[in-house]
Amino acid sequence: MVIRNMTEMDLVEVCAIEQETFSEPWTKEDFISAFTKQNNGYLVAEQEGKITGYCGFWGIVGEGYIYNVAVKKEYRRQQIGYQLMKELIRLAYHKGVTSLTLEVRSSNLPAIRLYESLGFEHTGIRKDFYSKPKEDAVIMWLNPIQ
What is the pLDDT of residues 103-134, one digit of tens each? Predict the structure, then answer.
């Protein structure tokens, strides 16, 4: 597996994963806007020429907000999400980010366990944060990044 920066050439596969994973998926234009900004970082995992997952953060004055983390269904439970997130944390650190935050559906226990294994801590709940279906979000922080 290779983990590398996301490019525009990756977006057909990234958007397909986004569509299968999220009820309100980002568009190609959303991703282009995100990964072309200097303070942000977006990565893909590639195996045998196929994109198997991706993740990304927006950097804002020393803090990073993780917007996207997804692994293609048939590649889940193979440590791809973990490896992507480890690399994303390293990238954020090298861009001067000192803490990272994210929201995750309260029912998404595999993702919550992944983030906990990386040192993220629960800090709150955002009531009815998600729609389609309506659900609370768990707010998690990694502070400081090390």
Answer: 999 999 999 999 999 999 999 999 999 988 99
Q: Looking only at Cα atoms, what is the longest distance across the chain?
A: 41
H helix runs in the chain, sequence order = 11-21, 28-35, 80-94, 109-117
- Residues labelled as active-site residues: 103, 115
Side-chain half-sphere exposure of 93, counting CA atoms within 13 A: 11
DSSP state for residue 100 in the 8-state scheme: E
pLDDT (tens digit per residue) in 33-70:
999 999 999 999 999 999 999 999 999 999 999 999 99
| DSSP symbol at 85 | H
Parallel/antiparallel/unpaired status of strands 2-5 and 99-105: unpaired
Q: In whole angstroms, give the CA distance from residue 42 to residue 55.
A: 6
**What is the domain count for the chain?**
1
CATH number for the domain spanning 59: value is: 3.40.630.30
Phi, psi of 15 (to 5 degrees): -65, -30
Whether 120 is covered by a domain: the verdict is no
Cα separation, 96 vs 94, whole angstroms: 5
Helix, strand, or coil (residue 77): coil
